[in-house]
Amino acid sequence: MKTILLTFALFWSVNSVAHSLMPPIDIGKIDKAKVGSLNSQTFISENNFVFRPIEHPFNMQMYFSEYNEWHLLEEDLLHWSGAMGIDPRVVLTTLAITSGWNPKSNPSDPELSRYKLDIKQITNYLSQVFYQSINQSLSDDQAISFALSSSLKSSALWPQWVSFYKEWFGEPSSDQSRTKSAQPEMQWPWRAGYNWVPNGPHSHTGSGFPLSSIDVSYDWPRWGGQTYSVTAAHEGYVSIFSRCQLRVTHPDGWATNYYHMDGIDIQHGAWVSKNDRIGTYASQKNIALCQGGSSTGPHLHFSVLFNGRFQSLQNLSLGPYQVDVGRYSYDNNCRYTWMTDKRSNNKRCFWSRIDNPL
After folding, report:
1. pLDDT in tens, 256-312
2. May I ask which residue range the UniProt record assigns to the signal sequence (predicted)?
3. Residue 204 is assigned to a ligand binding site
């Protein structure tokens, strides 16, 4: 019997390490002497650097209605902006400086393919450098400055970056960051009354910090296996980023991302209540990874944000379970990462089946 239980535990542990959306970036290898720094008066604040789709909605038609060909970039742009948490306006301005993107040109198929890949790389780079810098105790403004200046390779390009941004998008909004409120009541992102298996906390990219995300699945099947309904973890407004990703934003600024989706059956801009069905998690790899990335099998990649910024799950609660995130992404040592069932004060390990009570 002990052998069977050990085999079962190893199965969950090995198969639940689900994916890395993008390869990790080591900011220690960035040559800070060559990067320089931007002006101390930061042009882009955190409120405009991170993606807040309800407060700062974006679509290509809003800014580039004369150049309709560029709508072919929109899903890639919104998908990676949502997954990495970087505002699309920041991404497009950086794309123009680093890759020569020009909204007034007529794109060829090779250009579109190249720009789609560049968008994926830019959002990953900006996101990882920003969050790693924050983790190394830089201020928000310093982290944004470092991410942008290092992506441009030279701070001498910053005035051109600002000029492009103003030309296309106007002055950045001046709204203030709101004070962080208490976490709203959240359940797990599957139907109340059912038991699923979560794996260990990890970053939104699969490596690095903050440990904002958890992958969940009913039974961690192989590709092509049965998958099940995903539900809203809390009430809020829906932002659909792509065929396989959406966000629900609570009015107080808290939000949750749902990635590797299929059959999204809620409309963009709709209001959902906690436990409302929003789709299923994808059974087929090409659907789950509609814009790329890697994954070992069907699951939902679920992340928590506040005011557009990914939040550590440390001490946050999903249903009756309070999370201790552990030491690093996918930490599978239950001495360091676990859930506390607040109904009984019992400790539960990740990679074990838990309930989502009614």
Report:
1. 999 999 999 999 999 999 999 999 999 999 999 999 888 889 999 999 999 999 999
2. 1-18
3. no
The answer to whether the CB of 323 falls within 8 A of the CB of 317 is: yes
Task: Using DSSP, state whether 337 is helix, strand or coil.
Answer: strand
Total number of residues shown for the chain: 358
Q: Which residue is it, tokens 């560029």?
A: 70
Among 333, 323, 289, 273, smallest CA distance to 303 is for 323
Give the ranges where the chain is alpha helix by DSSP (H).
2-15, 32-35, 46-49, 60-64, 74-84, 88-99, 109-135, 140-152, 158-169, 285-288
Contacts of 153 (CB under 8 A, 6+ apart): 34, 35, 98
**Domain ranges within the chain, ordered by starting residue:** 32-169, 181-355
Average pLDDT over the chain reads: 90
Q: Does 56 show up as a binding residue in the annotation?
A: no
Residue 210: both structure tokens together: 């903050």
Query: Of residues 19, 56, 234, 260, which has the active-site annotation?
Result: 260
Report the pLDDT value the prediction gives residue 16, as an integer from 0 to 100.
46
Residues whose CB falls within 8 Å of the CB of residue 224, separated by 6 or more in sequence, listed in order:
283, 284
Q: Which of 200, 212, 207, 202 is nearest to 335 (CA)?
A: 200
Q: Is 105:119 a contact under the CB 8 Å cutoff?
A: no
Peptide bond into 103 cis (omega under 30): no
Q: Is the pTM higher than 0.85?
A: yes
Listed residue (181, 186, 190) closest to 236, CA to CA? 186
Rounded-to-integer distance, Cα 128 and Cα 131, Å: 5
pLDDT of 188: 98
**pLDDT score of 301:** 97
Instruction: Supply the DSSP string of 100-155, one letter for each residue.
Output: ---TTSPPPHHHHHHHHHHHHHHHHHHHHHHHHHHHTT--HHHHHHHHHHHHHS-G
The per-residue pLDDT for 293 is 82
Catalytic, 260? Answer yes
Strand partners, 242: 245
Query: Do the annotations mark residue 215 as ligand-binding?
Result: yes
Domain 181-355 has CATH 2.70.70.10: yes
Residue of 19, 204, 234, 299 marked active site: 299
Q: Give the pair of three-digit tokens for residue 231.
A: 């539900």
